[in-house]
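Provenance and format

Records in this collection were gathered into a single text stream. Each protein contributes a sequence line and a token line. The two records reproduced below are adjacent in the stream.
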Amino acid sequence: MKNNVAVAFLLVAACGCENDRGTTAPSPSLNVSIRGQAVNYRTNIGISSAVVRFMGEERPIIVDAMTDQNGFYTMTLPIAGFFSLWVTGAQVGAGHVSSSAYRGDLFVNDAACIARYGTLADARTLRPIAGATVYLAGNEAVSGLDGWYRLDFGCPPARQSGNTTYMAITHPNYSRRDVVVGRGVQEVYRVDVDLEPLR
């Protein structure tokens, strides 16, 4: 009986487990060190003495760091995964930290500015995806070598509202992904997206 339990345990441990985002997650990395900058979106100036917080969405993890005089911060997370991202008490995004190569830049919106930005990664390997096209509300951007994309809509005098709006991501080697960004496009917000490779 003991051997059967041990074998069953080994089989469960060896198989890939589905996370709540519908992809097979690799084994999480431990002690992920990341670096980034908290920046005022409108002025593009780093924010000094800001508290940057990464709050785990799947595990009860909270890690804080203080920015330096130029808005840069470093922190070490105990594990990779999905986090809500905060700067001085305001949520500024939803991130998927996969490794120490994670670009931790965060924008703070002190006006009625609108943008979406973040990183695109392979859902299986968690490596950044370059050359993916991101479409949203008539604008498009192509991800760089580090998977980084950014769509800017400026700082209109009034926020845009409307029906449920989707951001579409395409790449020749990956399945298309459509992500809800809200009712219309509002706020400056980071959205990291994982793409499933084509079989």
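Adjacent record:
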Amino acid sequence: MIDIRQSFEYANYLKKEGWITERIENTNYFIKKLPLVGSVIKIQRPEEINFKTTEKLCKKYRVFRVILEPKLTSSFGTIKGDHNLLVSHGFKLSKSSYLPSKTLQIDLTQPIDKITANFKKDARLALRKTKDLGFKIYDWDSLEGFRNSWKKAVGFKRYVPTLKSLIDLYASFSPKKLIMLASHNTGAIFLRTKDTAYYWQAFTSKEGRASLSQYSLVYQGILWAKRMGCKVFDFEGIFDERFPNKSWLGFTHFKKSFGGYEVLYLGCYTKFRFPYFDR
């Protein structure tokens, strides 16, 4: 299954956000030009790694840093032999990653009753308590309202995307590959490719946590993904012991209450270059 970063929709979104996008042999390459120093290129979860194409683009755009996040997975924290291949091409494993290096996925090919049977006790209890909870679906004309709800919920403590960024995202993925939901100062954005749905971004307030509305919104996202024919629901990141970020522990506990299985990726590899020596 193709990762969302390798979709046409995501490439279109980053292009609207100011990135140069190159699509070569079904792989997206994203380039950002920086004043004076050159450019950065990122290749995220490609189906194949083409070192020759990457080097050509590096020379074309005078790239000083390559960010490569392989789709290759690791097993129980061990790195497969592909690590040596990446190192042989000058890459080093970074101490942190841009994309989540560990995630949680639900198999949506199962009947919904089997999916919910794997929910943990706290999730099942929360869904029973919020079964009559209403929620709003936001469309093109209400994106500013969605953002205002986001700002109200988190205040100045957390980053809130700009209205332009939300408009760009909606324009790139709508109408059938994106849904924005909110209820009780809790909101979520779900994106999808043909086969995989992503719990892309979310916010909640103290009121939202008290109302348990975040459980209901995730469940609605799962139902939406299943209606759209997706085979996998991806929670888009949980705590990874290899690259520990303690701020992820809280929402990891929340996400794990929905069951699913863990997926580990190799992590982020970077390579620095000297573009001014390119010919």
